[in-house]
Amino acid sequence: MKKDLLEISRQARALLQDLRLLGVGDLVMSSPRAVPPDLPVCPLHVTGVERGGRVLCRQETLEEIRAELEDCRRCPLCEGRRNIVFGVGNPQARLVFVGEAPGREEDERGEPFVGEAGRLLDRILFAMGLRRDQVYICNVEKCRPPQNRDPRPEEIAACEPYLQRQLAAINPRIIVALGRIAVQSLLREQSPISRLRGRWHTYQGIPLMPTYHPAYLLRNPAGKREVWEDMKQVLKRLREES
Ligand code: URA
Ligand code: URA
Predict the structure, then answer these.
(1) Residue 57: its pLDDT value, please?
(2) Which atom of ligand 2 is found nearest the CA of 211?
């Protein structure tokens, strides 16, 4: 009996070593008691979420992703920022809005869309019958670019994995991409926003509606009519999917 146990233990250790050799990294070993019963069994190849060499057998949470960004220095925007602007709202939101990058007020408060453009976004939400805490709001770029210049491709690339993980953690029914930078980085599309908006696209299997950015609407109020057309399509689809 004792010999059997020793053999099982030896086999288990060898299996872990093999997995490590195959690049699976440190498996997070939980005692059976620590695993809530509703966790999916985690197949060895992909279904686990691999982060920092660990395979997690469940979807990571927004708070875990936020914690990883703490004090981020992965791109030069960290030099000028005051706060990382991660995102706000309902972690289980059915609808997510993705903007471009924090501006001055967002940088000061650590919250997206709290300046003039944000107040317009709040009005759009109100018109849709939604409140801020019912949706989720974030940006492609989590740190403020100096003088609000466009984020550079390498800055977008550094931040992109975090947006991808955020969207995977929320798994919304619909994504609204606000403005050119959000649309182009989520869809890998160079066409102008005026051509992309108003029609459904997909991001990782999730329906995505591009529309004009609220800051653009502040300068070009005539575009509000088109944004409202786009938001009506979003509301219709949200209703159909519930
Ligand atoms: N513009 C954006 O794109 N995002 C914000 O958070 C604020 C303004
Ligand atoms: N240009 C942009 O960058 N965004 C818009 O929403 C419209 C024009």
Answers:
(1) 73
(2) 6
Q: Where are the domains of the chain?
A: 75-241
Token output for 133: 């805490």
Q: How far is the CA of 183 from the centre of ligand 2 (A)?
A: 10
212 lines ligand 2 (CB under 6 A): yes
Q: Is 145 in the pocket of ligand 1 (CB under 6 A)?
A: no
Kindly indicate the confidence band of residue 18, based on its pLDDT and cuts at 50, 70 and 90.
Answer: very low
- Which of 99, 140, 134, 141 has the alpha carbon at shortest distance from 120? 99
The Cα 210–Cα 183 span in angstroms is: 6
Fold annotation for 75-241? Uracil-DNA Glycosylase, subunit E (3.40.470)
In percent, how much of the chain has pLDDT > 90? 75
Which atom of ligand 2 lies nearest, measured to the CA of 215? Answer: 6
Pocket of ligand 2 contains residue 213 by CB under 6 Å: yes
Question: Is residue 231 in contact with ligand 1, taking CB distance under 6 Å?
Answer: no
> What is the predicted pLDDT for the residue at 45?
34
Q: Is the CB of 155 under 6 A from ligand 1?
A: no
Mean pLDDT, the chain, integer: 87
